[in-house]
Specification:
Blueprint: H1 17-79, H2 85-111, H3 119-141
Length: 154
Amino acid sequence: MMPQRYDSPADTDDRPLGELFGDMSRQVQDLLRKEVELAKIETKQEMSKAGKAGAMFGAAAVTGFVALLLLAFAAAWGLADAIPAGLAFLAVGLLFAAVGGILAMQGRKRLATFAPVPQRAIRSIGTDVRAAKESLSRGAAAPVRHGVPRAWNG
């Protein structure tokens, strides 16, 4: 009796094509489910960072506001000895407005690095979908020789 030879390891699977596609479909669903779970975790981590940063900004804003009021009044009253009180308060107010504008621009720059969308998970899902499509197109284009030994194919 002559030993049977197969074209490739995939040809040794005797399951029907529908069952193989069903298995592949379940595996793709499992993979996508895991990718979505990764995206959720990644988003939760980013939101946690944003929440902590927001709390710090809130605390800093309250204490900064109180300090700003006290310093502004002290500066204006001190300057009022040299110039009229109205002009002293105006000068101090303009100075603090300029500093506030600079701080707001710096805060906007830092906020630009905040990434609420899970970029790694999106790239990974895209890669998985492309790989599944390529696999399906290769599978559809390949000749179906399901478990048939090479000697029988002529």
